[in-house]
Design a protein that fits this description.
The complex is a heterodimer of chains A (348) and B (276). In chain A, helix 3 packs parallel to helix 5 (139-152). Chain A is built from ten helices and 20 strands. In chain A, a hairpin with a 5-residue loop joins strand 17 (302-309) and strand 18 (315-321). Chain A is an alpha+beta fold and 348 residues long. Chain B is mainly α and 276 residues long. Chain B has a single domain (58-275), classed as MetI-like fold (Orthogonal Bundle), CATH 1.10.3720.10. Helices cover 76% and strands 0% of the residues of chain B. Chain B has helices at 14-40, 45-52, 56-89, 95-107, 110-121, 126-131, 142-167, 170-178, 183-212, 215-221, 231-240, 244-272. The chains are: A alpha+beta (348), B mainly alpha (276). The interface between A and B is medium-sized, with 28 and 19 residues.
C-alpha cells in the first residue's frame, strides 16, 4: 500500500517539529527517514501511524484519506526502538496478541493462531524460543519478536522507529541485513526512522533526509550520496573537509582546482570528502595547497591522515587506501601538498 | 589482611547495616511479639481454645475484623487504582491538592475520622440521611466498619500503585493499540497485568492496616457483641476486665491468621512478579 503525507505540520508548544513536510512512499518500498535528533523524523512516523495528530496536512493510504482514522483503523505495524514487548507474556503470546484481541467474528481459531504465530516465529528465526519471556532474550532477539508481533496482524504498512537504535554495533549490522532480506521476501510497504547514515544508505530503497522539521532531499541512496543538494545533506551524509573561499565570476578557486558556483560573488564554502583528497609529495604545478602531516591513523583498511594547512592552519582530513599509503610512505611532520579530486561548492 | 577466605563486597557496610536491621527488628517487632506468645503460653491448650478460638463472641469478632478488612482492602485496591490512574495520567487544576488529600487519612487521628464518618453516615447525617430512606443503614453496622476501613486504607492502595503506573511505558499501550486492541483490552491485557504486583502490595498493606484498626471503627461500629464488635475491641474489653491472658490469646490468634494471610498474598505477589 502506498503512503502519502501531504503538507504535514506539527508544533509541540513553540517548537516546530514538522514544517510542511511532503513524503510519498510507493507500494512495496522500504524507505528511510534519515536525520539528526530533533529533525522531526520520529514525529512524522508517528503521524503516519496515527499515534500523533498533525496540526495540519493529510495522510493518505492508497489515495484514501486516513488523516482522521484511529491507530486501530489504520492497521499499521509499528516497531518501537525499545521493543515495547509485553513483559508478562511469553514470546508466543506477544506475537499472538494482535490476533487474540480481534473481534470474535474475525478472530482465528486457536489452532490457526498457533500456526500463524509459529510461522512468524520461524520467519524471525525464533521458533525455538516461543515459550521464553522477553527478559530471557537478547536485544536483537527482542526486536525480532517485536517485528513478528507487528507482522502478525498482516499490516498494510510497517513502520519502524529507530528499530536498531538500542542494539550494539555488531547486532545492528546483522539485523539490518536481515531486515533487508525480510523486506525482499514479504514486500510490505515499510518506513523506518534512523539517524545512522550507513544504516539508511544500506537498507533503504529510498532515503528521505530531514532537518529541522523539513525534508532536505529524497531519492535513491546512491543518488543522494553522490549529489547532495545542499551543505546540510553533504555534511550529514559523511565526513567532510571545509574550505572557505570567495566566489569570483561564478567560479571558485581552491589551490589549482577551479569549481563552478551558482552564486556570482561573495563567500562560499568548498566541501570535500576525506577519501577525495589526494596527497602529493612533489608539487606538479603552481597554486597547490601546502600542508603538514600532523597524525596518521593506520588501523584497518583505510588510513586516515590528519593535515594542517600552511596558510590558515586549518585541519584537513584525508583517507587513503592501505596500498596508496604504503606506496607513498608518508611520515608525520612531512610537508606535502593536497588536492581535492572531487568537491562541491555551496554559497554561504 | 584477610583476603583469602572472604569475598570482598563492592558495597561496603553490609555488616553494620545488617546488624542494625536485626537489632532494630528484634527490639521493635520480634521481642514484643515473642512476649505475646510467652504470655499466652501460660494458658493451657484447653483454656486457650475455649477463650480465643471457640467462644462464639470471639469468633464473630474475628469474622467481622478479617471480613471487613478484606472487603475494604478489595474496594481500595479497585478505587485506589482509579485514583492513582487519574493522578498519573491526567493533568488538571488542583492536581497537587488532590495528591496531598490522598495522604490525609495517614495524618488524621483515627478517632477524628471515626467520629466524622459516624456523624456523616448516621441516619441523621448528610450521607446517612440519603441512604436511610433506601433502607441502607451504614453507621452502627458492619457496612460502617467497612467504610471506616476504606478511609484508613486508601493511601496504601494509591501510593503503591502510583509509582508503578508512572514507570509504565506509554509505548506498551501504543503497541497494543496499533495491534488492534481496544481501550478495555489494553487495560485488562496490558496495564493490569503489568501493575498487578503493586495492586497486590497495596491490597496487603490496606488489609493489614484494616485488621489492626481500632480508633475509627470504635466510633462508627456501635460495638454490639456478636454484631459489630471487632477483635481489637474485644482485646480492650478483656484488658479492662483484667483478663490480660485472654487478651493475649486473642492477640496470638489474630497474629497467626494475619501472618498467614499476608504470607499467602506475598506469595501471590511473588508469582505475579515472576517475569520481572
Amino acid at each position: 500500500m502506498a503512503i502519502e503525507a501531504r503538507n504535514i505540520s506539527k508544533k509541540f508548544g513553540t517548537f516546530q517539529a514538522l514544517n510542511n513536510v511532503d513524503v510519498v512512499v510507493p507500494t512495496g518500498e522500504l524507505i528511510a527517514l534519515l536525520g539528526p535528533s530533533g529533525s522531526g523524523k520520529t514525529t512524522l512516523l508517528r503521524i503516519i501511524a496515527g499515534l500523533e495528530q498533525a496540526d495540519s496536512g493529510a495522510v493518505y493510504f492508497d489515495g484514501e484519506d486516513a488523516t482522521d482514522a484511529s491507530v486501530r483503523e489504520r492497521r499499521v505495524g509499528f516497531v518501537f526502538q525499545h521493543y515495547a514487548l509485553f513483559r508478562h507474556m511469553s514470546v508466543f503470546e506477544n506475537v499472538a496478541f494482535g490476533l487474540r484481541v480481534k473481534k470474535r467474528s474475525e478472530r482465528p481459531s486457536n489452532s490457526e493462531i498457533r500456526d500463524r504465530v509459529m510461522e512468524l516465529l520461524r520467519l524471525v528465526q525464533l521458533d525455538a524460543f516461543s515459550a521464553r519471556l522477553p527478559n530471557q532474550l537478547s536485544g536483537g532477539q527482542r526486536q525480532r519478536v517485536a517485528l513478528a508481533r507487528a507482522l502478525a496482524v498482516q499490516p498494510k504498512v510497517l513502520l519502524l522507529d529507530e528499530p536498531f537504535g538500542a542494539l550494539d554495533a555488531k547486532v545492528r549490522k546483522e539485523l539490518r541485513r536481515w531486515l533487508r532480506r525480510l523486506h525482499d521476501e514479504i514486500h510490505v510497504t515499510s518506513v523506518f526512522v534512523t539517524h545512522d547514515v550507513e544504516e539508511a544508505l544500506e537498507v533503504a530503497n529510498e532515503v528521505v533526509v530531514m532537518n529541522e522539521g523539513r525534508v532536505e532531499q529524497s531519492g535513491p541512496p546512491d543518488h543522494v550520496y553522490e549529489h547532495p543538494v545542499n551543505s546540510f545533506v553533504y555534511q550529514f551524509l559523511g565526513n567532510v573537509n571545509l574550505f572557505h573561499t570567495r566566489v569570483r565570476d561564478g567560479r571558485v578557486r581552491l589551490g589549482d582546482t577551479v569549481l563552478e558556483c551558482n552564486g556570482s560573488h561573495g563567500e562560499a564554502v568548498v566541501y570535500a570528502r576525506p577519501h577525495d583528497i589526494d596527497i602529493l609529495r612533489e608539487a606538479d604545478g603552481p597554486d597547490l595547497i601546502a600542508a603538514g602531516i600532523l597524525r596518521i591513523h593506520a588501523i584497518g583498511p583505510i588510513v586516515r591522515v590528519e593535515l594542517q594547512r600552511d596558510g590558515d592552519q586549518q585541519i584537513v582530513e584525508a583517507e587513503l587506501t592501505r596500498e596508496a599509503y604504503a606506496a607513498q610512505r608518508l611520515i608525520v611532520g612531512e610537508n606535502v601538498y593536497i588536492r581535492p579530486r572531487q568537491a562541491k561548492v555551496y554559497p554561504k | 589482611m584477610d583476603l583469602k577466605g572472604r569475598r570482598r563486597r563492592v558495597l561496603p557496610g553490609f555488616g553494620i547495616t545488617m546488624g542494625f536491621t536485626l537489632t532494630y527488628l528484634s527490639l521493635m517487632v520480634l521481642i514484643p511479639l515473642a512476649g505475646l506468645f510467652i504470655m499466652s503460653s501460660r494458658l493451657s491448650w484447653t483454656d486457650f481454645f475455649s477463650r480465643a478460638v471457640l467462644d462464639p463472641r470471639v469468633l464473630a469478632a474475628y469474622r467481622l475484623s478479617f471480613g471487613a478488612a478484606f472487603i475494604a482492602a478489595t474496594i481500595n485496591a479497585l478505587f485506589g487504582f482509579v485514583v492513582a490512574w487519574v493522578l498519573v495520567r491526567y493533568r488538571f487544576r488542583g492536581k497537587r491538592i488532590v495528591d496531598a488529600l490522598v495522604d490525609l487519612p495517614f495524618a488524621l487521628p483515627t478517632a477524628v475520622s471515626g467520629i466524622t464518618l459516624t456523624t456523616l453516615y448516621a441516619s441523621t447525617g448528610w450521607v446517612g440521611g440519603l441512604l436511610a430512606p433506601l433502607g441502607i443503614p451504614v453507621a452502627y453496622t458492619p457496612a460502617g466498619i467497612v467504610v471506616a476501613l476504606i478511609l484508613i486504607g486508601l493511601p496504601f492502595a494509591v501510593r503503591t500503585v502510583q509509582p508503578a503506573l508512572e514507570d509504565m511505558d506509554v509505548e506498551l499501550e501504543e503497541a497494543a493499540t496499533s495491534l488492534g486492541a481496544g481501550r478495555l483490552q489494553v487495560l485488562s491485557r496490558v496495564i493490569l497485568p503489568a501493575i498487578l504486583p503493586s495492586i497486590l502490595s497495596g491490597f496487603t498493606l490496606a488489609f493489614a492496616r484494616g485488621i489492626g484498626e481500632f480508633g475509627s471503627v470504635y466510633f462508627i461500629a456501635g460495638n454490639m457483641p456478636m454484631k459489630t464488635e471487632i477483635a481489637p475491641l474485644l482485646i480492650i474489653i478483656k484488658l479492662e476486665q483484667y483478663d490480660s491472658l485472654g487478651a493475649a490469646a486473642i492477640g496470638v490468634v489474630m497474629l497467626v491468621v494475619s501472618f498467614s494471610m499476608i504470607f499467602i498474598i506475598n506469595m501471590l505477589q511473588f508469582w505475579s512478579r515472576r517475569y520481572q
